[in-house]
Amino acid sequence: METFKEQNKQINRLANQNEEKIKKCIKAYKATLNCLRHCLTSGENHRNQEHITLLKECSEVTHLASSFLIDGSEFKNQICSLCAEICIECAESCESIDAHDPIMKSCAISCRECAESCLSLTH
User: Fold this and answer.
1) Do 113 and 65 touch, CB atoms closer than 8 A?
2) How far apart are CA 78 and CA 42, in angstroms?
3) CA–CA separation, 85 and 65 (whole Å)
4) Buried b / exposed e across 61-76, counting CB within 10 Å, b at 16+?
5) What single DSSP character describes residue 47?
6) Cα 30 to Cα 86: distance, rounded to the nearest angstrom
7) Rounded distance, CA 113 to CA 43, Å?
8) 4-122 has which CATH code?
9) Would you list the domain boundaries of the chain?
């Protein structure tokens, strides 16, 4: 049976291997939450229910993916695959609503970077 110290070393080793992916997931998580707040206080187009739901789902899956990567979960590939799919949809949604809005643009960029990073793990 592994001691807590050994488990902690293993988690740290796995987290270091996936550090860049974790950073991209966390960046996308923060960007989607920021965009969600922005959209809820902006014009009618930004408050489209489908878009709001997608932003919420994207923030949740990016947070989950970062946790699975940190833990070195055996399910990280499946979660990252789903994360990439949702991030791509979210980026496209942000761009279709207002590609020139700096907050929407930042969210789209962060989501695309996260998707690319997650896909590199699953391929």
Assistant:
1) no
2) 34
3) 12
4) bbbbbbebbbeeeeeb
5) G
6) 15
7) 27
8) 1.20.1270.360
9) 4-122
- Asked whether the predicted pLDDT for residue 29 surpasses 80, the reply is yes
Could you tell me if 58 and 88 are in contact, meaning their C-beta atoms sit under 8 angstroms apart?
Answer: no
Token pair of 81 as six digits: 């695959």
Q: What is the pLDDT of residues 48-90, one digit of tens each?
A: 899 999 999 999 999 999 999 988 899 999 999 999 999 999 9
3-state SS, residue 100:
coil
Amino acid letter for position 6: E
From the DSSP assignment, how many helices (H) and strands (E) are in the chain? 5, 0
User: Smallest Cα–Cα separation from 36: which of 80, 89, 90, 86?
Assistant: 90
**Residue 1 CB neighbours (<10 A):** 4
Q: Would you say 24 and 114 are in contact if contact means Cβ atoms under 8 Å apart? A: yes
Place of tokens 């923030």: 59
E strand or H helix at 72: none
